[in-house]
Amino acid sequence: MKKRLAIIVVALLMFSFLTLYKLDSYIMSPGSAYDVSEFVNVQNGDTEDEGTFNLMTVSMMRATPLLYAVAFFNEHQEIMQLNTVRQKEEDEEEYNIRQLKLMTDSQFNALYVAFSKAGLDYNVTWKGVYVLNVLAGGAAEGIVKAGDEIVEVNGQRIQKQSELVEIISKAQKDDAVELVINRNNELLTKNVQLKEIPDSDGRVGLGIMFTESKSIKTDPKVKINAEDIGGPSAGLMFTLEILNQLLDEDLTKGYAVAGTGEMNEDGTVGRIGGIERKVIAADRDGMEIFFAPDDEITTEMRQYNPKVESNYAAAVKTAEDIGTKMKVVPVKTVDDVLAYLQALEPKK
After folding, report:
1. What pLDDT score does 59 carry?
2. Residue 14 above 90 pLDDT?
3. Alpha-carbon distance values, 20 to 17, 24, 65, 74, 178 (Å)
């Protein structure tokens, strides 16, 4: 009886280890295609369209020994080491915060580009500096948190990150600065004594990584509800859906259109990760057209990874491997997308 109990206990411990123990890696798998009109609503917008614009997702899971073993033998899953997913000193909470910020920025850029293309009114407001993560051993450790917005420094209102950089660059080691931060819509005053930034060349600062926080108001109003989708890769498809509802025409020409790519403020389409998995998901979900960023591969990128290839090249290779009939289209800018759709014959 004791021997049998011991075997059961060992088996349970082994099962728990295989299924629950977190390794320093992630598993990326094909996600799904989602009709962007489910997330975007333009006030009094045109929604009477035959086709759809669809954003693509991937599934990112922290690897366990069992998931790692399964992914190792699955050609449609990718094992990614922790340091290729997270930034230096970034914990899981900070990673999730950064992904949500990237998504918020992609929505801003989508609105900015779509309304610019449509020739409609918008107004941009700079709200301060958004903290992405706090360096261990830095001046702000234990005082400032990822997700905070710094809105005031030493009594001076901060709107853009250049203003924060200018103030801090003039300060000396051990100088005290008074910050006003917005944390979950509550204004807090925090005092920070500056010190050398960890792993820097002796520069003095707060020891944080940050970006700008800004918002955009448009006329007509646009509501985007995509809080559960992280990262910037849906930016292009958000832009196209907003334009599609703003304009009194069906840009899709009746097709199931998918795509991916970061939407930059200048209208260029930026490189993203996981495009192979997105092509697989798009084919599985019946997409007919897939827009892929045709990004330039720099010398620095090749030095870091000699096997690197453009998003478009990787998408074409995956499409050929799975034998899809879906059309993969290279795009460098949103204008490339609109030109392709304009020339496309309506689906019969």
Report:
1. 87
2. no
3. 5, 13, 8, 20, 43
CATH architecture of the domain 125-215 equals Roll (2.30)
Catalytic: 278?
Answer: yes
Spatial distance between the Cα atoms of 117 and 115, rounded to a whole number of angstroms: 5
Query: Which residue among 29, 233, 253, 310 is the active-site one?
Result: 233
Query: pLDDT tens digits for 106-134?
Result: 999 999 999 999 999 999 999 999 999 99
Do 314 and 294 touch, CB atoms closer than 8 A?
no
Residue 109 Cα distances to 54, 201, 300, angstroms: 18, 34, 27
Residue 104 tokens, joined: 């918020």
Residue extents of the structural domains in the chain: 30-79+99-121+219-343, 125-215
The burial of 247, by beta-carbon neighbours within 10 Å (0-12 exposed, 13-18 middle, 19 or more buried), is given as middle
Q: The whole model's pTM is what? A: 0.86
Q: What is the largest CA-CA distance in the chain?
A: 79
* Residue of 25, 253, 278, 310 with catalytic role: 278
User: Which CATH number describes the domain made up of 30-79+99-121+219-343?
Assistant: 3.30.230
CA angle 322, 327, 330 (to 5 degrees): 110
Dist. CA 313–CA 328, nearest whole Å: 10
Alpha helix ranges (H) inside 73-219? 82-85, 92-118, 161-169
Residues 130/101, Cβ–Cβ less than 8 Å: yes
The answer to whether residues 228 and 96 touch, using CB atoms and an 8 Å cutoff, is no
